[in-house]
Design a protein that fits this description.
The chain has 5 helices and no strands. The protein has 128 residues and is mostly helical. The protein has one domain: Fumarate reductase/succinate dehydrogenase, transmembrane subunit (3 helical TM bundles of succinate and fumarate reductases, Up-down Bundle). This is Succinate dehydrogenase hydrophobic membrane anchor subunit. It is found in: Membrane.
């Protein structure tokens, strides 16, 4: 016996297709922000190539540089986390493993972002 099922019938009940738009927009916005901030970061680092550690701390401590560096780090980790999330969603098909890896992905990127940002803030507020 042949069953006549349309592709819509096969996909019914598998969830809404609306949830990916926010993720897509955020990934594009973080990429746009990183385009600008990466140029600033490259110029900033090249300018500090011959600097002493004290000069680096002083440069990072400048309010504009501290804010831009924190934005750069935040957007970098957020954008990277979203990219790894897409890879996990596309290529890990076991539900329990996917959930475990998604939790690990967020935890690792959050921990790295926190350590990086605290390091920048410590340099910014140090009295060297």
């Amino acid at each position: 016996m042949t069953r006549l099922r349309t592709p819509l019938k096969n996909a019914s009940g598998l969830g809404s297709a609306k949830s990916g738009l926010d993720h897509w927009v955020i990934q594009r916005l973080t990429a746009l922000g990183l385009c600008v901030l990466t140029i600033w970061f490259a110029v900033f680092v090249i300018g500090l190539a011959a600097a002493s550690p004290g000069e680096v701390v002083q440069a990072v401590g400048a309010p504009v540089n501290t804010i831009l560096l924190l934005l750069f780090l935040g957007l970098t980790y957020w954008h990277s986390m979203l990219g790894i999330q897409v890879i996990l969603e596309d290529y890990v098909h076991m539900q329990w493993l996917s959930l475990l890896l998604q939790i690990a992905n967020r935890a690792i990127f959050f921990a790295c972002a926190a350590v990086s940002m605290v390091s920048v803030l410590r340099m910014a507020f140090s009295t060297s």
